[in-house]
UniProtKB/TrEMBL annotation:
Protein name per UniProt: Glycosyl hydrolase family 20, catalytic domain
Lineage: Bacteria, Pseudomonadati, Bacteroidota, Cytophagia, Cytophagales
Keyword Signal in annotation: yes
Any one GO molecular function term: beta-N-acetylhexosaminidase activity
Domain of life of the source: Bacteria
Every Glycoside hydrolase family 20 catalytic domain range: 86-293
Length: 363
């Protein structure tokens, strides 16, 4: 058994013990990153969201807010890509000012590469620029179902299309300027369509090299203005060897990109069904990593305990890579606020709001 796999085996068989292992009492560790990730609010819910920042995020010492903006902004560089209801520059300034007063860094996100469609809907980029589609031969269904014959989960843009990055980077630059951001989240999770055999540009190419090349290209563009790239970590994990499967890890050979991407990319490592200890792998590869739970409070506690234990027991060289915890929310901001404040009744205690309260208890 290789040394790295022995380490994973040890962590899985021998869970945390001692003070960090008391379920229900996550360690009160001030991680470098105490994060919260959610879709940016629509204009009608902005004031309520701003109050949530002041009354809920700030008292819990949340210091990082990842906002999934995508096309919920009135882009000037590409107005054709705006959502019908989108935040104005002045509304973004209000949000940024609130976060600055609370000591919270804002990291805007636009999904790049993957997630260019959802269910039966093509998202704005490919709807307006269909020539960027990696798989134009795959038609969007009138009624979406999984699994399906095309293996369609979400569309991707072709990373080798000669025109795609001019558009993409204009969006990235504008959104980073609007949010006064030193960091940008490119998403890049759950990329199933990449190096498609029918693509005239990248068909037959190594998928790990294609993925790593796109990461490096985005990272290098951001670095021109001293900005840092964040991505989700699932495509960098070997889904077969680890048993993590095709959602939380890669089954299409992109995992080897973990050895090819620049080392200054921030990895957001998400696991929602089990508290898998994969931050160790990213740290051992020299990458900074944040653990990201969603809606299972028990798992979030275990993940927080692990992160604290890794930081407490690691060498100085490794310790700096274990950056902390970030709660993720996968509904829109309005639905989350309704759930959080009890206006929407949950069918289970496993909710994003309960997970957040458990992970970051109120003072």
């Amino acid at each position: 058994m290789k040394p790295l796999y022995r380490l994973f085996f040890f962590l899985l068989i021998f869970p945390a013990t001692g003070s960090y292992a008391r379920v229900g009492t996550p360690p009160d560790t001030l991680y470098p990153v105490r994060g919260f990730c959610i879709a940016a609010p629509v204009p009608a819910r902005l004031d309520e969201f701003v109050q949530f920042i002041r009354s809920e995020l700030a008292p819990r010492k949340i210091n990082t807010l990842v906002l999934r903006v995508d096309f919920n902004y009135r882009f000037e560089s590409h107005p054709e890509l705006r959502d019908s209801l989108a935040l104005s520059r002045s509304e973004v300034r209000k949000l940024v000012r609130t976060c600055r007063e609370a000591g919270i860094r804002v990291v805007p996100q636009i999904n790049l590469l993957g997630h260019q469609s959802w269910a039966s809907k093509t998202n704005n980029l490919l709807a307006k620029y269909p020539e960027f589609d990696e798989t134009p031969h795959v038609m969007m269904p009138a009624k979406y179902a999984w699994p399906n014959a095309d293996g369609l989960y979400c569309k991707s843009y072709c990373p080798l299309h000669p025109g795609v990055h001019k558009v993409v980077f204009e969006l990235v630059d504008e959104i980073c300027d609007a949010f006064e951001a030193s960091d940008f989240h490119a998403g890049m999770d759950e990329v199933f369509y990449l190096g498609d055999d029918k693509c005239p540009r990248c068909g037959g190419r190594d998928k790990a090299e294609l993925f790593a090349g796109e990461v490096a290209l985005i990272r290098n563009h951001l670095s021109l203005k001293n900005r840092k790239l964040w991505i989700w970590g699932d495509r960098l994990l070997d889904g077969k060897t680890t048993g993590l499967g095709m959602w939380e890890a890669s089954m299409n050979q992109t995992h080897r990109a973990i050895d090819l991407i620049p080392k200054d990319v921030m990895i957001c490592d998400w696991h929602y069904e089990r508290p898998d200890p994969t931050p160790v792998l990213f740290a051992m590869k020299g990458l900074d990593v944040i653990t990201c739970p969603w809606r299972n409070p028990g798992n979030a506690v275990r993940q927080s305990e692990d992160m604290a234990r890794f930081r407490a027991n690691a060498t100085p060289e490794m310790r700096t890579h274990f950056q902390g915890m970030m709660q993720t929310v996968w509904s829109d901001a309005g639905n989350f606020l309704d759930e959080y404040y009890g206006r929407k009744k949950a069918d289970s205690p496993n909710t994003a709001s309960n997970c957040f309260r458990t992970l970051f208890p109120a003072p």
